[in-house]
Design brief:
Blueprint (H helix, E strand, L loop, with lengths): L1 E12 L2 E13 L4 E5 L6 H8 L7 E6 L2 E2 L5 H11 E5 L10 H12 L4 H11 L15 H13 L5 E5 L7 H18 L2 E6 L2 H4 L4 E6 L2 E7 L15
Parallel strand pairs: 3-8, 3-9, 6-7, 7-8
Antiparallel strand pairs: 1-2, 1-4, 4-5, 9-10
């Protein structure tokens, strides 16, 4: 699904070159649950932007489902993002006055889908919010807001869910609920999930951890016994 080879990203700050990524190579196959982990300044956010087709590398190649993204125009990259990648961010990125059902419908409106209400209801049910579809963000807890964001990412049936510090704004119990949703989506639906995190506890819930430091991969480890998150959230198919 993902094939990255010799990826570099160089930023210029005056006369200084900053190599945010320096020869990164890895593959991620469909159905994996992976963490990209590293401290601040390791290059993980830059890598997330490239994998998410939000930015282009300086050199090297990135193929997503056999498409070499470096050959695509900005409009084509936007189309790939809309069809193949679902984003979940730490800050939820919900619109304050819009109920959950309409938040989740937004990506479908942009794509011109006609069955958006049915698909949005199904996505909200999948994250345990079938009884909160008409609630606005101010009427939802932080964990419920993040579940709306996950449903919005799921509604287009993306190949990849790319989660950037998705529990960073949540308490421990609520974080466990969110991690349980991601693990269930991966286990029951075969959804490919990539976490970008600096927290070892979050990465321990995945099955593979790619460690970045100073723009390079310093380790790529399988997790023998991933932690299982438990949460009593009622969901629908």
């Amino acid at each position: 699904m993902i094939r990255v080879r010799d990826l570099t990203k160089v930023y210029r700050m005056g006369d200084v070159e900053v190599r945010a990524l320096n020869g990164v190579s890895f593959d991620i196959t469909a159905g994996e649950l992976v963490a990209i982990m590293g401290p601040s300044g390791s290059g993980k956010s830059t890598l997330m932007n490239v994998v998410g087709c939000l930015d282009q590398p300086t050199s090297g190649t990135y193929e997503l489902d056999g498409i070499e993204t470096g050959r695509l125009s900005d409009d084509q990259l936007a189309d790939v993002r809309g069809r193949k990648i679902g984003f979940v961010f730490q800050s939820f990125n919900l619109l304050a006055r819009m109920p959950a059902i309409e938040q989740v419908e937004l990506p479908l409106i942009y794509s011109g889908a006609r069955d958006r209400r049915e698909r949005a209801l199904r996505a909200l049910g999948a994250v345990g919010l079938a009884d909160r579809v008409h609630h606005r963000p101010t009427e939802l807890s932080g964990g419920q807001q993040q579940r709306v964001a996950i449903a919005r990412a799921l509604v287009t049936n993306p190949a990849i869910l790319l989660a950037d510090e998705p529990t960073g704004a949540l308490d421990t119990r609520t974080s466990e609920e969110i991690l349980a949703i991601f693990q269930r989506l991966n286990r029951e639906r075969g959804q490919t999930v990539i976490f970008v995190t600096h927290e070892a506890d979050i990465a321990a819930h995945t099955r593979r951890i790619i460690h970045l430091r100073d723009g390079k991969i310093v380790a790529d480890d399988q997790v023998r016994d991933p932690r299982v998150a438990h949460a009593a959230i009622p969901v629908t198919a």
